[in-house]
Amino acid sequence: MYRNKLLIFLSIALFCALIVPGFMLVVGTFLFPELGQTTFTFFQFATSRTDQVLLLNTIEFSVGQAAIAVGIATMYAWMIARTDVPMKRFFQLLPILGLTIPAVVQAFVWSFLFAPRFGPANILLRDIFGPHAPVLNVFSMLGLILAAGLAEIPLPFLLIYPAMRSVDASMEEASQIAGKNFLSTFIGVTFPLTLPAIMSAFLLTVIGGLSNFDFPIVLGQPAGIHVIATEIYYWVSERFPPAYGNAGIIGMYYVIIGLVLVTLYLWSTRRTYKYVTVSGGTSTRIVHRLGKWRYGAAIACFLAVFFAFLLPIGTLLVNSMTSVLTFTGGLTFRYNFPAAYIAAIKLPLFWTSLEDTVEFSIAAAVCATTIGLLLSYAALRNKTRGARWAEYVSSVPLLIPGIIYTVGLFWTFLLVPGANILFGTIWPLVISLSFFNLPQTTRIISGNLVQLSHELEEASQVGGSSFLKTLTRVVAPLLKVSLAYSFVFVFANSLRELGSVVLLATPNSQSFTTLLLDLYNSQVAQFDTLAAGSMILIGLIAASLAAFALAQRYLSGRGSE
């Protein structure tokens, strides 16, 4: 019992160390407003018409991009899991491919392709349909929602696809025996059975949209469209002097909205047990014959892959190897490889930011995986009341988006004695990224831990081993696959993250994504250099994922010998 309580206490203590900035955000905003240059109060912000528009913009963007992403992901997952659509192996690569492109880089691509006057896509439309062809203006709320929604397809697909595969075939067989075609079976049987997973994916994507900083800062600001994330960035980074109090007050509204959505998300995930679709029988999974619609479905799947991955990566590759000159009369391509890459690596802080990014990404992966292991073990291996807290605290980071957490870190550095020595190092970025990725690490690890028997751990403890020795020599080796997945996920996600680090980056602790954002804001015309820098970052992410895949195959091969 003592070890159980000690484990729970240690897990929650580690988490509380991460949650301190959230607490300091509230303390600093309301008790020390003069330190943060506060110009309005909590209630003044709520009653201001301008700020009500800000809240409406945030909700419209979050819900809109989630609706597009989940709608496409649902049909995409259904066609991959339940139909005979061609090229399934290729289409299943979408989630892995989507991880390699940072969201801010995808926003750069959309701003280049669909700029109203000189975007290559709009120029081609005018060449094909004449000068009066409709212009696709990405610098609008509709363009912002479409761009972010298409970029977010991989996340809901990962959540919906397993549910689609698990639908009990006997129910679909009964529908077909009743004379229903594949579309009627999907609407009447498959969709209702997977609705809890779809709703969970929708709510989680809406929560992600609330904290999405990348697309609003690149596509929204030129159109004068402000959401809460970009408004916080303005008060902290673009205004002089910075108004941390204003950012904190706005952040409180962010947390309130997030609290409602996270509560709905947890409620929806707990209700999924009422929709059991996996039977203990031996029925095989139905593959619907699409007939003449088979190749139409393949084209639809290809378009999802095209807009989510092929178009961004192709645009970056072409621009990094050529100078693309756009004008109202057409396009001109001039091959200049490797000039753009040479210009990119000669940028000030290029190597420093790349080195710092790798360092804090590795440190964040180690910290988040370690804390995730402790929280998962405390929640699943203890039957005391405190174990329930270890389960709940892992979902708290969903309430506090990354950019708000960084404002809380600022208050921590201001108000906690001695904390200012960390500012300017990589550790604020490590803390922010560890907190930001904690919900994912706990779910990756707990999904494997719940399947392990207690027998080996009990044998180790009976043999006199300490808790730490049992955890490191028995539990960790059994969880090596999930721990490796957690490490690689956090590492890759940290390389591509912007919102959680944009306010913490300094010349002494630079992030590569913030370097790209600064390059975009200062040299918009030199998109070839920006594309080359983006390709270098994508190459680093892809190399890390490929190295993990090769290592996993090598280890699994040795294990089978």
Offer a few descriptive terms.
single chain, MetI-like fold, 2 domains, globular
Explain how this protein is built:
This protein is mainly alpha-helical. The chain is built from 25 helices and two strands. A two-stranded antiparallel sheet has the order 1-2. The longest helix is centred in the N-terminal third of the chain and has 34 residues, at 49-82. The chain starts with a helix and ends with a helix.
SSE layout:
Elements: H1 2-31, H2 42-47, H3 49-82, H4 88-91, H5 94-99, H6 103-113, H7 120-129, H8 141-151, H9 154-166, H10 169-177, H11 182-210, H12 214-220, H13 228-238, H14 244-270, H15 294-321, E1 322-327, E2 330-335, H16 339-345, H17 350-380, H18 386-393, H19 402-415, H20 427-449, H21 455-462, H22 467-478, H23 480-496, H24 512-522, H25 527-559
Give a brief outline of the structure.
With 561 residues, the chain is mostly helical. It is 71% helix and 2% strand. The longest helix is centred in the first third of the chain and has 34 residues, at 49-82.
